[in-house]
TrEMBL record:
The gene is preA. The keyword Plastid applies. Keywords: Isoprene biosynthesis, Magnesium, Metal-binding, Plastid, Transferase. Its cofactor is Mg(2+). InterPro entries: Isoprenoid_synthase_dom_sf, Polyprenyl_synt, Polyprenyl_synt_CS. This is Prenyl transferase. It comes from Rhodymenia pseudopalmata (Red alga).
């Protein structure tokens, strides 16, 4: 968190405005939905996604001031991300996120689903008002991708035959798609050429995948205090990620835990120890590193400026989360 704050210090003022606007955008139209939305936006958050959008805008504008449409896209990106988290928490029955009670545990499941739908609807409204059809198409696809990713994940709970390719594809739908489309959208608003738009898409895609892989490693190696939720949550929910998939190639005893769906009291903790005592964590780190390198490669031809250096530093900093 401290590392990201340092990297984003140059756009701190923009992020403060964004935080204020997020609360205005949800609007107090219904007390319960507004309370749920306010609860979400008051939660501890790095706002890394809108920050990346603003930085991509600065690079693609080649030092010309970013536009109000860029700022609105950054806000839309954070609202869509937040809406997806609300629905994810309901599906996975998470009680806390970032150390704060989730919406469905604070209110109830019905309110949480409605709050998520409400946020998606608000994001769609503000997206339409950008008056940029290509950006609308790009970002609208993300909401479809979220649903696709959630369905794929749901159909593969406790599926020990899931491959790394399946995992990467699902991770793209659930995480990387939004960052990729938002970065491309920023370049579109800047009227950048198609090659620049595509490079920003690739930057966001690979950055998003690296983020997800890193999060999944931390779900195994982190503590409840650092994660804001119990370690091994993915294992318990039957959501199999890179560390487990790699560990299954080496530690066949893990199949016993999977077959009984980690029902015994110490199953999750024991499985975590088995994964840690394999080559799986290192293999997952190597996979994250590959995507970090791909994100940096996508930035190579972009305009040299401070914002580009920060985007590069964000990519490189991902692995520091694991140290």
């Amino acid at each position: 968190m401290i590392l990201y704050n340092k990297l984003l210090s140059s756009i701190q003022y923009d992020l403060e405005i964004l935080n204020k606007n997020l609360k205005k955008m949800v609007g107090p139209k219904h007390p319960i939905l507004y309370a749920a939305a306010e609860h979400l936006f008051n939660a501890k958050s790095k706002r890394i996604r809108p920050a990346i959008v603003l930085l991509a805008a600065q690079v693609s504008m080649q030092e010309t001031s970013v536009l109000s449409e860029h700022r609105r896209l950054a806000e839309i990106t954070e609202i869509i991300h937040t809406a997806s988290l609300v629905h994810d928490d309901v599906v996975d029955d998470c009680q806390t996120r970032r150390g704060v009670e989730t919406v469905h545990s604070t209110f109830n499941t019905k309110v949480a689903i409605l709050a998520g739908d409400f946020l998606f609807a608000q994001a769609s409204w503000y997206l339409a008002n950008l008056n940029n059809l290509e950006v609308v198409k790009a970002i609208s696809k993300v909401i479809t991708d979220f649903a696709e990713g959630e369905v794929r994940q749901g159909l593969n709970y406790f599926n020990s035959f899931i491959s790394i390719d399946d995992y990467i594809e699902k991770s793209f739908y659930k995480t990387a798609s939004l960052i990729a489309a938002s970065c491309k959208g920023a370049a579109m608003i800047s009227n950048a050429n198609k090659e620049i738009q595509e490079n920003f898409y690739l930057y966001g895609k690979h950055l998003g995948l690296a983020f997800q892989i890193t999060d999944d490693i931390l779900d195994i190696t982190g503590s409840k205090d650092s994660l804001g939720k119990p370690a091994g949550s993915d294992l318990k929910n039957g959501n199999f990620t890179a560390p487990l998939i790699f560990a299954l190639q080496e530690k066949k005893e893990l199949y016993e835990y999977i077959n009984r769906e980690f029902k015994n009291k110490e199953d999750v903790n024991e499985a975590i120890e088995i994964i840690k005592n394999s080559q799986a964590i290192q293999k997952a780190k190597d996979l994250a590193r590959e995507h970090i390198q791909a994100s940096l490669q996508a930035l190579k031809k972009q305009h040299e400026c401070e914002a580009k250096k920060i985007l590069e530093s964000i990519s490189i900093s991902i692995l520091y989360r694991l140290s």
